[in-house]
């Protein structure tokens, strides 16, 4: 893959002491693997969301041509000269971003495209860089995003069934809503070379710093380059072996709240690689801005449990999220004392 060179002085980039390999006691085979073509997997899904807030799915049914078509355009885009790419940024929060993540000083060894899946997005500038018709890009994104939405809904409905919540579309209807505030992000992590960055003595450069995803559910697909790590409930980090044929699913903050903490919004991060480019595409399924988010009454009644969170609208959450740093816990302020 062609890789851009990122001009950088790197004092501002975080380094961490972990290696890309996991310590033996946290072997990645712990990560739940779910075969979406099998019947009756709802209990496995619930268990994965409770224990990890994270799982890998195989036999997902997403057409390979949708993945390849979009990935190819993304590679082409990220291989273009920086001056061209910058014409589609800076992100406000949507558009092309380079190293800067969010508005509050977070940086990473990453460049990306961030877009909203429901509002009209201007593909014109992207298309002219790629030398294609804007309609082709729009189609490639729409085909891919529609498959993500479909898979997200299937998973969310099985989760509702597994939790014995009625109706089963209680979560999925939020991302099916035409006003759903869902996002799509393509991240490119160029390999860092020692000419550009000082040697890190075996330590790793942060591509995308630790954080939880704000939305209900996130679906990630990457090429075969390692880098993604998740944090276990005990705070240990484990590396997720890449698999370009599978999807990795995260529970987001909103689903943690709606399940009153039963599902865990998983903390994750990405380490940059000094050999290979990593390219990931992530769909973030979010509710409409006006939606009230709080623990589902049916779950509280069932477990005879107190609500751990105050109710808030997705708009309120987002307003405060955009004032936060990436690694902040964005749910503390909504916890009941
Ligand atoms: C983290 C998850 C998604 O990538 C994202 C990010 C968003 C952004 O890049 O604009 C945020 C971050 C993410 C959470 C806190 C705020 C907003 C950057 C940031 C510092 C698109 C999202 O929805 O929240």
UniProtKB/TrEMBL annotation:
Gene Ontology MF annotations: gibberellin 2-beta-dioxygenase activity; L-ascorbic acid binding; metal ion binding
Annotated keywords: Dioxygenase, Iron, Metal-binding, Oxidoreductase, Vitamin C
EC number: 1.14.11.13
Pathway(s) served: Plant hormone biosynthesis; gibberellin biosynthesis; Hormone biosynthesis
Domain Fe2OG dioxygenase: 179-287
Superkingdom of origin organism: Eukaryota
UniProt enzyme class: oxidoreductase
Alphabetical list of InterPro entries matching this protein: DIOX_N, IPNS-like_FE2OG_OXY, IPNS-like_sf, Iron_ascorbate_oxido_reductase, Oxoglu/Fe-dep_dioxygenase_dom
Catalytic activity: gibberellin A1 + 2-oxoglutarate + O2 = gibberellin A8 + succinate + CO2
Pfam families, per database record: 2OG-FeII_Oxy, DIOX_N
GO biological process terms on file: coumarin biosynthetic process; gibberellin catabolic process; response to light stimulus; response to molecule of fungal origin
Function: Catalyzes the 2-beta-hydroxylation of several biologically active gibberellins, leading to the homeostatic regulation of their endogenous level. Catabolism of gibberellins (GAs) plays a central role in plant development. Converts GA9/GA20 to GA51/GA29 and GA4/GA1 to GA34/GA8.
Assigned protein family: Belongs to the iron/ascorbate-dependent oxidoreductase family. GA2OX subfamily.
Name recorded for this polypeptide: gibberellin 2beta-dioxygenase
Protein's organism: Capsicum annuum (Capsicum pepper)
